[in-house]
What does this fold into?
Amino acid sequence: MSKLLYLVGAVVVLLITLSFLSHRLPPTTEVALISTEAVVEEKTESTQDWQAVLKSVPSYFKTPDDNKAENTKNEPKRMPTEARLIAVVNLDNVSEAAGVFVLPGEVEPKMFKAGETWLAPWEISSVNANFVTWVNTEDNTEVKQRLF
It folds into this structure.
């Protein structure tokens, strides 16, 4: 009977040892996954030129000339109302008046009569007592700029 107990005890110790070792080792699926990822990385690095791929996609890569053209298209249209109308004055002729403006970025005021402009394609069509009417010569749109 003692021989049987020794044999059962040895088998139990062997099973405990094998169980402990099997739980300490990583699963074989993780080892296989890590090894396949390493192989995939090596293949992609050696076979593809990522810069050439990105340059071949027109929506991603734009030449510097295209970028300049796009930036100029995105600039907002300037309006004549950017200049501040500070006065309306009568000229020597009683029927003729002019608007006095301070242009953007300037300190000195400038005077413009009907038909004159400071910003193409806009020109003054009429000068009234408290407003000036600007007309776009390209599309005939009108903008009224009030005093102050």
Summary: The CA atoms of residues 62 and 118 lie 36 Å apart. The two ends are 116 Å apart (CA to CA). The beta strands are 84-90, 97-102, 110-113, 122-127, 131-136, 142-146.
